[in-house]
Automatic annotation (TrEMBL):
Protein name per its UniProtKB record: Epoxyqueuosine reductase
Cited Gene3D superfamilies: 3.30.70.20
NCBIfam families found in the cross-reference section: tRNA epoxyqueuosine(34) reductase QueG
Co-factor(s): cob(II)alamin; [4Fe-4S] cluster
Family recorded in the similarity comment: Belongs to the QueG family.
Binding sites annotated in the UniProt record for tRNA: 222
Domain of life: Bacteria
UniProt record, GO biological process: tRNA queuosine(34) biosynthetic process
Taxonomic classification: Bacteria, Pseudomonadati, Pseudomonadota, Betaproteobacteria, Nitrosomonadales
Protein's gene: queG
Catalysis: reaction(s): epoxyqueuosine(34) in tRNA + AH2 = queuosine(34) in tRNA + A + H2O
UniProt-listed PROSITE patterns: 4FE4S_FER_1 (PS00198), 4FE4S_FER_2 (PS51379)
GO CC annotation: cytoplasm
Pathway linked to the protein: tRNA modification; tRNA-queuosine biosynthesis
Amino acid sequence: MAVAIKTWGKELGFHDVRIADAQADMSTVESGLFQWLAQGYHGDMDYMAKHGTKRTRPAELEPGTQRVVSVCMNYAPPAVKNSWDVIHDGDQAFISRYALGRDYHKVIRARLQKLADRITGEVGTFQYRVFSDSAPVMEVAWAQKSGLGWRGKHTLLLNRQAGSMFFLGEMYVDLPLPVDEETGNYCGSCSRCIDVCPTQAIIGPYQVDARRCISYLTIELKDSIPEPLRPLIGNRIYGCDDCQLVCPWNKYAKITQENDFHVRNGLDEVSLIELFGWDQATFEAKLAGSAIRRIGHTQWLRNIAVGLGNAPYSVEIVQTLQARVDDSSDMVREHVQWALQQQDQKRTAIQESST
């Protein structure tokens, strides 16, 4: 049955499927989580602290669970604009490459449900529950325990054949399947991910202070972005891939075969000005089915305002920002004013350098 599950999983588009014992010793992972929470590194992500040991003890979340089936699916889209070229062009908007297509939560859970249906057809009714970043599950820890890869120093899962540009999903099952062995850690002495982080959010190997992470600041944080961090964000308006882009293992990252993860609406190469011009209706329509839509239009404008403030000075950018100085959102107005101040400082610097 374990062999069949792995075969069916690959037929459904997962590039690997592995199995871990749900009763495996997770005491080190559990204590690490509690220490991370105690230090406040989770910021405003209160959901990380809500469920206690359910994250590391599957049977507490889903009684009867015996095994954790972990899956991964590549997301690197084909024919995508080079990430560094976009990041280094201050007028462009950089969006994390995982978010350029359809919302992965929907895709992964739907495929896992199909896998569950195949299993049901073979063994009859069994107890299961499928996940993809959708419940208190330590996804990376269980993927590591199953042998899908190892936790890199940036805390993402790494795989020798696929780098880190893939999504994870899990199925808790009550089937006593044979389990797979863990793999080794192959980061060695490399620290490129730590060194490249724009905000130095990776405070040490395997330790991230989410409060400084650009992904947290642009996606999870619902309030104003702290001013000292705004200039460091650059033009990254949704997520940040820097730690993955410099990782040597990502030379093995595979182009996705999943059409749902292909680039939509030209989001791999689009100007900040264009995106800032989207009204609520356009935002909702363009990003229907996208993970980005979850942050809402107000947070979207907040992020882009920061990007415009960090962009090279231009009259067009100033005019674009001025069009929203009276925005209905206090948060948007605050970030627009900050961005206008940044543009004014750059204009002054240009004038002074030319005299």
